[in-house]
Amino acid sequence: MGRRGPRRLRDTAWATAGVAGAFAGIRAMEAVRPEVIGEDSGAAEIRDGVGELTRAYFFSAGAIVVSPLLATSVRLPRSCGPIGLLVQFGAVGLRVWAMRTLRGHYARTLRVVDGQPVVRSGPYRSVRHPGYLSVLLLWAGAALTARNALAPALTLTAVGTAYQHRMDAEDALLLRDLPGYAEYVETTRRMVPRLLAPRSGSGRHER
């Protein structure tokens, strides 16, 4: 019992660092966002999903910090702490790559503007939503830093569900309003690359 106290304190310290890294990563992603082409207001029905994402972030932050203190948590290897931070660093890099690829079409909200292309270069060659994938990885990395199995399970469920709803709304909007997006959907998956997917076509959308 005496050894559990210091261990839990160390794990909590790592978890706190991971949560701080997640929020710092989100701020860094927003700081380097390129200027958006056109108005960045988005459709009203899609803006409502922002609240769900925010709730998922804060729920995950709480779950990550508290989980090392729970007696029922299953401890992961110590290496998961630094590995989690490395995953977060890579997640920010993926988001920057996605933003640089879309440039002025990388909007905070979901909307389609006149002349908007469907982009198939950069990370969009492999997945339709690398921006969302980057945030999911950011929070997965934060969960790993807690060095227990409960944190990733809760975090991926909360953040993954919120982004599932977001992607459903985005794909519906783009299939309706963006010419060529339907063909793009046929050759790419949302977040997991198709190893043998065809590479023909041109463009993409918001995230």
From TrEMBL:
<dbReference type="InterPro" id="IPR052527">
    <property type="entry name" value="Metal_cation-efflux_comp"/>
</dbReference>
<keyword id="KW-0812">Transmembrane</keyword>
<protein>
    <submittedName>
        <fullName>Isoprenylcysteine carboxylmethyltransferase family protein</fullName>
    </submittedName>
</protein>
<dbReference type="Pfam" id="PF04140">
    <property type="entry name" value="ICMT"/>
</dbReference>
<keyword id="KW-1133">Transmembrane helix</keyword>
<keyword id="KW-0472">Membrane</keyword>
<dbReference type="InterPro" id="IPR007269">
    <property type="entry name" value="ICMT_MeTrfase"/>
</dbReference>
